[in-house]
Amino acid sequence: MSLTSQENLQHLRAYVDYLRDLGIYDLYRRENPETFLPETVREAFAASAKRMVAAPQTAAKPPAQPEARTVPRSAPPVSPPSVTQRAPMAASGTRPQEPVRPAPPQPPAATYFDSEPAPLPPELAAPMPKPVSFDQLAPLPTQIIPAAERVAALEAIRADIGDCTRCPLAYGGRHKIVFADGDPNARLMFVGEGPGADEDASGLPFVGKAGQLLNNMIRAMGLQREEVYIANIVKCRPPGNRTPEPIEANTCSPFLLRQIDIVRPQVIVALGGTAATYLLGVKQSLSSLRGRWYSTRGAKVAVTYHPAFLLRDPRQKGEAWKDLQMVMVELGLKPAAKA
Ligand code: URA
C-alpha cells in the first residue's frame, strides 16, 4: 500500500505525539537519563522491574490470552480489524469442526484523526517540557574563533549536520536543509523560527515574502542583508509551516548554538515567539518580552515580531520598528535615508 504524502505526514505527526505521550519530548536536552522520563513512568518501570525480579523464574508461562490493551492517546493509527476472521487452528493442527462465522459488519473503527482525543488522565498526562535557554545548554566558549577561520568553522558545523535525520522533520517532506545566510563576522544576527516553502526549495533562510520584509527592515536599519547573519531555530521546514515541536527545536538548537558561538554577534534579534522561547528559555507572550534586553551566548538579545506576523498584521510594524531602533542605538547605526 503506498501512502499519500498527506497520510505520511499524518502518521509522522501521530508518531511524534505518541512519543510525547510516552514522555519523550526531548532527545537532546536531558541532563540525566534518570530524569528523562516523567516521574509516573519511571515509577511504573521500577515497579514492573521489581515484580519481574520477585517472580519465580521457573514458573510456567500461562497460556496466551487476548489482552485488553490501553492504547495511548495518540498511538499511531492502526488498521481496523479485518471483517473476515480466520478460524483458529485446533491443537493438532487440523481444522476445527465448527467453522467461525464472519463477524457482523461493524462501523469503521475510530482512528486517531477522526476526532479530538479525550484528554489523558492527570497521572498520565506529561507536562510540557520547560524550555531551556541556550546559555543553560552549554558553557560559554573560552576561545574566540579568529575572523579568518569562521567560514571553515561554520562549514564544519554544516558537515556535521550532513543529510540530517535526527528529528522527525527529516521525514516531513523536507527538500533542503537551511543552514544560514550572511556574514560570519556579523555584529548583528537575526534568528527566525524555521524555513518555509521558499526557503526549503532554495536552501536559504528568509527568501520568501517574510524574507523580503526582513530585507526591508535590515535596510531601514542602515545595513545590507549581506552584513548580517540570518538563521533559524530549526533548519528543516516543518510540514505545513507549523510551529516546530520541542523535540525538533531541541534537537536542532545545538547547531545554532555553535553557529552563534562562532559568529559571536554583538546583538541577536529573536524574530517571533519561537526564537525567543528557545534562545532565552522562556515561554511568554511576545508582547511581554519586547522592549528590553536579554542575553545569550555573550550577545545582547532583543525580541520583536516575526516578519510573517507583520505581514498579517501590518499595524504592528511601528512597534517592530521601535524594537529595531533599540538595536540600532546599541550598534550605533543610523537609519537609511528615505529613497
Ligand atoms: N520564517 C522563518 O522563521 N524563517 C525563514 O527562514 C522563513 C520564514
Describe the structure.
The protein is α/β, with parallel strands linked by helices and 339 residues long. It has helices at residues 5-21, 39-54, 134-137, 150-161, 197-202, 209-220, 246-263, 273-280, 286-289, 307-312, 317-331; strands at residues 181-182, 188-192, 229-232, 267-271, 294-296, 299-304. It has a six-stranded mixed β-sheet with strand order 1-3-2-4-6-5, sandwiched between helices. 29% of the residues are buried. The structure holds uracil. Uracil (URA) binds next to helix 6.
Summarize the entry for a quick read.
The protein contains 11 helices and 6 strands. It is an alpha/beta fold and 339 residues long.
What shape does the CA trace take?
elongated
CATH architecture of the largest domain: 3-Layer(aba) Sandwich
Bound molecules: uracil
- CATH homology group of the largest domain: Uracil-DNA glycosylase-like domain
CATH topological fold name of the largest domain = Uracil-DNA Glycosylase, subunit E
Order of helices and strands: HHHHEEHHEHEHHEEHH
CATH class of the largest domain equals: Alpha Beta
Number of strands: 6
The count of domains is: 2
Strand order of the largest sheet: 1-3-2-4-6-5
Strand content: 5-15%
Number of distinct helices: 11
Largest sheet at a glance? Answer: 6 strands, mixed
**Could you estimate the helical fraction of the residues in percent?**
25-40%
In whole angstroms, the N-to-C terminal distance is: 59 Å
The rounded Rg comes to 26 Å
- Averaging pLDDT over every residue, what do you get? 80
Low-confidence stretches: 27-33, 56-95, 110-114
In terms of structural class, how would the helical and strand content be classed? Answer: alpha/beta
